[in-house]
Design a protein that fits this description.
alpha+beta, four-stranded antiparallel sheet, 8 helices, 4 strands, 71% helix
Amino acid sequence: MQPTKSSSLKKSKPNYINSVVGVALVLLLMGIMGWVFLNFERAGNALKEDIKVQIFLRTANKDSISQMQQYIVSQPFAKNVEYIDKEKAKQIWNKDNNEDWAKILDANPLPESIDFYARAAYVNKDSLNNISNHIMTLYGNQITEIKYPGELVNNINEKATRFGLAFLVISCILCIIVIFSIDNTIKLAMFSNRFLIKTMQMVGATRGFIARPMDIKAIINGFISAIIAIILLYGIISWIENQVPQLKVIHDNTLNFILFGGMILVGVAISLFSTHRSVIKYLKMKLDDLY
């Protein structure tokens, strides 16, 4: 009798292992999608905040230029405000065009400017137009032109909206797939215990007595699966950030901790729910239906 019991326990262990690994892989998929979703807005904002606005100056009066620069610095729409004099404008031109015109021209034809990067919330056609009109109203006699890549701004906003909507739909579909995959994986693991559950019921064990140890096991297995998935996801995130250093700029530990906590919560909750439901299901079934 004892060898049979031992053999039965050995047979049930691989099912739990398969369940833990299966749930971990599904949670990993959910974690990857969650990481992309949580960082999508930050990545979009980082891209938008690469939009440079250039205010080309007519005046050469340093006090007027300083006053204008300080005003722009104080505004909520601007960041990284910088005064570009003729010499710096020449250096930027030579760097971007890989040329040195000193060999050709004696005078520097480039205008001085005040450059700044617009904050993400203001990177749209209407806001940038309003900003330009406002600055021109205040300093129109000291400015020749305000320039920014309008076509690029429109493309960024249009593509961000379309991509965001598509990604939201895909994320919802994948969340449903994740839930069903975890549920089916656990059901498969519980299938091998159906006779044990029924036998315990037949000898007089209550539902709570039968379900309690399996529910506890489900919580532990769900937690282990989530930890495995988190370790794998952290490795993937680190590798991606090493391959694409720009992503380190939008790295946010708080968002990552929220994501990891969500993975643990989902793993434990679905494991517990699916296990408990399977136990109740087998307790309600007739013995002949278990075969």
